[in-house]
Design goal:
Length: 509
């Protein structure tokens, strides 16, 4: 495939104004699917479960099967709409979206079209330097997910060149909320950064609500990024009409969302500058090459032949339910981050590092369990993250915040040095018990008996008889050789600062 011509990003922004839009799909953690009683285990629907085992007749599109709306999914959708600052519709209804879906047995999707459950909201997005940006929300509507196709026989795993495809209906019918923004103006050079920050804000909201795992790598959260360009208007002239948009589908990481938006700006700018026109189409993002490729011509709403779903009644939530869900909303993520940053006293770069690593919840829980903020950040961002990266797992899956706080308390009490604490952490992660149990089982506590330390010091001095003289002559750094020898003799279980004090006391005698 020929490479696209790209315009320099800064030049593209000088000549054209970028207009963004996002469609974010959130899988809901309900026990059953959107319209059937089939199980919906969050960790198995995309990974682990045998194909076509999490299904019911409705999911397979079998004749005579009828959908039933999942009440919990409706509650979750209302909560999400409220958290997005949306109005909740007193009555909304489902529609049939007609399209060739080889992985939906009915060959149509039950979604919401002109009567969504939530509409007219806005989300505050905070960029890395603290700049705040309001993203307008057009709607948030309920729908069902499609299944999964596995293309067999080809070299790339894609449909092109495949001999046949296998269909897995496990994901068909999983409850989704699709969040659709209005056109976003004014992002300018920060458009790619805003794209990633917006998706991160949605992820934080749904995790805070407890309605989704929101893990992009597992497909719990998927983003379609819309990009269009329009020529810059001269001073005093009206703004040009909106340009033709492309929709880059199912981008599966924050970094990829940012890169895809940047790429599309550069690609479209090069086409327009050469006198070409943009095709309204879906695009596929390729992580390995860092570029997009054409998908299919993008349909408009009329092409889907929407009509009201005849098998489902309108959804009319009581006002009392809406208000009870509003009262139960957690603190907005942006407000929470500002509160924690101020409370912890972190520098901007340190706090943003925690946020970018996705470890804000873990650090907060560790602080709540009794650790100092700086210590909590140190453990999660250094040693625990190092082990997680080496093992290819999430840091949060290795150890609980309570265990990290207990470990730090042993350090604060002088029971452990930082070096010993790292060994204890490895034991905790290995399943050997609590930090205290690992200390006891491995015999890792710091030796606090001065008698034992003095004996080790005397032995080290006997092996290096000139050290005392050097220290007494003012060469205090010579004590390092004795301290090293003592630490080795004590298997690292001595407090180096205390050993230094005792060595200097001996020199002063």
């Amino acid at each position: 495939m020929a490479k696209d011509a790209l315009m320099d990003f800064d030049e593209a922004l000088e000549r054209y104004e970028p207009v963004l839009g996002f469609e974010v799909h959130v899988e809901l953690n309900t026990e059953t699917k959107m319209f059937s009683a089939a199980a919906n285990p969050a960790n198995e629907r995309n990974h682990g479960a045998s194909p076509n085992t999490l299904v019911a007749p409705v999911d397979m599109g079998l004749p005579g099967s009828l959908p039933v709306v999942n009440e919990t999914a409706v509650r979750y959708s209302i909560s999400l709409g409220l958290a997005l600052g949306c109005e909740i519709a007193p009555s909304s209804r489902f529609a049939r979206k007609n399209y060739f879906y080889p992985d939906l047995g009915k060959n149509y999707q039950i979604s919401q079209y002109d009567e969504p459950i939530a509409f007219e909201g806005q989300v505050e997005v905070e960029l890395e330097d603290g700049t705040r940006f309001e993203v307008p929300i057009e709607r948030a509507h309920m729908e069902e997910d499609a299944g999964k196709l596995t293309h067999m026989g080809g070299a790339t795993g894609r449909i092109q060149g495949a001999e046949y495809s296998l269909v897995d209906y496990n994901r068909a019918g999983v409850p989704l909320v699709e969040i659709v923004t209005k056109p976003i103006f004014g992002a300018e050079h920060r458009a790619p950064e805003l794209a990633a920050a917006y998706v991160r804000a949605i992820r934080d909201i749904v995790i805070g609500l407890g309605i989704s795992e929101a893990r992009m790598e597992r497909g719990n959260l998927r983003c379609d990024a819309n990009v269009s360009l329009r020529p810059r208007a001269l001073p005093g002239e009206p703004a040009a009409p909106l340009g033709t948009r492309t929709e880059t589908k199912n981008v599966n990481s924050m970094r990829s969302v940012e890169r895809a938006v940047r790429y599309e700006i550069q690609r479209q700018a090069a086409i327009l500058a050469a006198g070409g026109s943009i095709t309204q189409e879906t695009r596929h993002w390729h992580e390995d090459t860092g570029r997009t490729s054409p998908g299919r011509p993008k349909s408009d709403a009329d092409d889907y032949r929407y009509f009201p779903e005849p098998d489902l009644l309108p959804v009319a939530p009581p006002v009392e339910l809406i208000e009870s869900l509003r009262a139960a909303l957690p603190e907005p993520p942006a407000v929470r981050r500002r509160r924690l940053k101020e409370s912890w006293g972190f520098a901007d770069i340190d706090f943003q590092g925690v946020v970018n690593a996705g470890l804000l919840n873990e650090v907060e829980a560790t602080v709540a369990a009794g650790a100092a903020p700086a210590a909590a950040r140190k453990w999660w961002m250094s040693e625990i993250s190092r082990i997680a990266n080496a093992e290819g797992v999430d840091a949060a899956s290795l150890v609980s915040p309570a265990s990290v706080a207990a470990l730090q308390q042993l350090v604060d009490a002088g029971t452990l040095t930082d070096k010993l604490a790292r060994q204890v952490l490895e034991g905790v992660i290995a399943g050997e018990g609590t930090p205290q149990e690992v200390v006891d089982a491995r015999g890792l506590a710091v030796v606090s008996d001065d008698g034992a330390l003095i004996a080790a010091i005397d032995e080290a001095l006997a092996a290096q008889p000139d050290v005392l003289a050097k220290i007494r002559d003012g060469k205090v750094q010579a004590a390092g050789a004795v301290i090293g020898a003592v630490m080795k003799a004590m298997r690292g279980q001595a407090d180096a600062a205390r050993v230094r004090e005792l060595v200097l006391e001996r020199a002063a005698q």
